[in-house]
């Protein structure tokens, strides 16, 4: 019986899987490299079938309470002058009448952590250094904690998954860079924006700015054409210098934003990429969320895939608790068409917002028969 599972990563996918494993009677331990909940990140979206999953977790009302309250958005030209405005949608969240819920990433992380405080063990400030599998389980070594055995190990440690590197080897064949570097950070709301977004896009360069925390702060996302080497594993200071250099020619608000970025404590940077691989499992190890099938923020579906994947994985394990191999195979077979639909959305974003019809099909593109329909 697969009784104990170690999950690497306490982002969205990891705590969501821990919730469902506990629900189905398994024991889950989560190891997270950060010392505590990571602050920052932009708004993320819970859409389509992922809303069914959060509803089944009893979190529908809590998620609804956390939602952002954008009234609309302005598209700006390179000098920061408004060229278009709408009150029907925001750049980050899409149509306001879609039924989707947009929340800030750290708010959703906190909600999932709070929902799993009881009955789930969290190990902070640590990372797996090795996994040795044998016929009965996995011997896992950590940077700090002593060696332990688990029945199963799940990599939910994001796009650049460390566990994937350890178990599946070099990431190069799986990682498909999209040629865009993207930085997120928070600065004081010196623009006085009130529940309103600003966006700008010219070619690969662009930004999105929107207020948060009762309009006291601005969450900024700024993107640029990434050159080879721009995804090197620099420290935060090196990444800030890179962003300042690559965006140094941008006008409008950008020079002030870059100056304010220097003091940002929640800075996050990466070169956008998708993860496309198969199989997602090797023996007693499997991958979940961005680690196994990142669709990239361009799709707007990373969080929803992570939430649905967590449910499907735990559900399949519960169906054959003594046979993780077939459970992992069913998890992948069930998820893969849904993942592909959502990863393919990115090709549609090159010319503007994703057409509603294709987006609706992708976000609802998996049947979760066992879940009660949401209200
Ligand atoms: C700080 C941050 C900000 C983000 N902001 C945005 C955003 O604004 N817009 C957007 O669309 N997507 C954003 N993302 C990605 C988005 O959260 C994911 O696409 C989606 O929610 C899927 O979640 P995930 O849990 O699979 O991966 P993630 O949310 O990336 O979570 C992975 C977790 O694994 C942890 N981790 C990494 N390496 C190790 C290790 N060696 N050992 C243990 N733990 C490890 C990370 O610290 C993180 O907590 C962000 C991710 C992070 C980490």
Question: Can you walk me through this structure?
Answer:
This protein has about 375 residues and is an alpha/beta fold. It folds into two domains: about 5-70 and about 100-175 and about 275-365, 3-Layer(bba) Sandwich (FAD/NAD(P)-binding domain); about 180-270, D-Amino Acid Oxidase, Chain A, domain 2, CATH 3.30.9. It has helices at about 15-25, 50-55, 60-65, 105-115, 160-170, 235-245, 255-260, 290-295, 300-320, 325-345, 345-350, 355-365; strands at about 5-10, 25-30, 45, 70-75, 80-85, 90, 95, 100-105, 120-125, 130-135, 135-140, 150, 150-155, 175-190, 195-200, 205-210, 215-225, 270-275, 280, 285. The strands form five sheets. The protein has a seven-stranded mixed β-sheet. The chain is globular and about 65 Å long. Flavin-adenine dinucleotide binds next to helix 1, strand 2, helix 8 and helix 9.
Total discrete domains:
2
Give the neighbour order of strands across the main sheet. 5-4-15-16-17-14-18
| CATH architecture call of the largest domain | 3-Layer(bba) Sandwich
Helix content: 25-40%
Q: Look up the CATH topology of the largest domain.
A: FAD/NAD(P)-binding domain
Structural features:
about 375 residues; alpha/beta; FAD/NAD(P)-binding domain; D-Amino Acid Oxidase, Chain A, domain 2; 2 domains; 7-stranded mixed β-sheet; 6-stranded mixed β-sheet; about 30% helix; globular; binds flavin-adenine dinucleotide
């Amino acid at each position: 019986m697969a009784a104990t599972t170690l999950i690497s990563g306490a982002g969205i996918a990891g705590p969501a899987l821990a919730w469902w494993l506990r629900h189905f009677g398994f024991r889950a331990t989560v190891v997270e490299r950060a010392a505590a909940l990571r602050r920052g990140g932009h708004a993320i979206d819970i859409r389509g079938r992922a809303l069914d999953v959060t509803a089944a977790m009893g979190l529908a009302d809590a998620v609804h309470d956390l939602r952002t309250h954008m009234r609309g958005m302005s598209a700006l030209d390179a000098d920061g002058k408004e060229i278009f405005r709408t009150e029907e949608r925001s750049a980050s969240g899409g149509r306001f009448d879609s039924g989707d819920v947009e929340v800030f990433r750290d708010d959703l992380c906190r909600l999932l952590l709070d929902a799993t405080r009881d009955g789930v063990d969290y190990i902070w400030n640590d990372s797996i250094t090795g996994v040795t599998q044998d016929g009965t389980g996995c011997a896992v070594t950590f940077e700090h904690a002593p060696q332990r055995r688990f029945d199963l190990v799940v990599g939910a440690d994001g796009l650049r998954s460390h566990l994937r590197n350890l178990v599946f080897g070099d990431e190069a064949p799986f990682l498909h860079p999209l040629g865009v570097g993207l930085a997120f950070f928070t600065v004081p709301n010196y623009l006085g924006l009130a529940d309103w977004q600003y966006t700008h896009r010219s070619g690969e360069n662009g930004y999105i700015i929107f207020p948060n925390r009762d309009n006291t702060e601005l969450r900024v996302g700024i993107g640029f054409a990434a050159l080879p080497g721009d995804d090197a594993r620099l420290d935060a200071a090196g990444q800030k210098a890179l962003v300042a250099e690559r965006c140094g020619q941008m006008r409008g608000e950008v020079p002030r934003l870059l100056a304010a970025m220097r003091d940002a404590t929640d800075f996050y940077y990466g070169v956008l990429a998708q993860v496309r691989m198969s199989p997602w499992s090797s023996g007693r190890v499997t991958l979940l969320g961005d680690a196994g099938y990142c669709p990239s923020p361009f799709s707007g579906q990373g969080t929803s895939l992570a939430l649905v994947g967590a449910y499907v994985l735990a559900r399949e394990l519960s169906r054959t608790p003594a046979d993780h191999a077939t459970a992992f195979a069913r998890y992948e077979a069930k998820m893969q068409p849904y993942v592909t639909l959502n990863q393919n959305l990115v090709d549609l974003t090159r010319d503007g917002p994703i057409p509603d019809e294709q987006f609706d099909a992708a976000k609802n593109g998996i049947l979760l028969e066992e879940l009660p329909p949401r209200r």
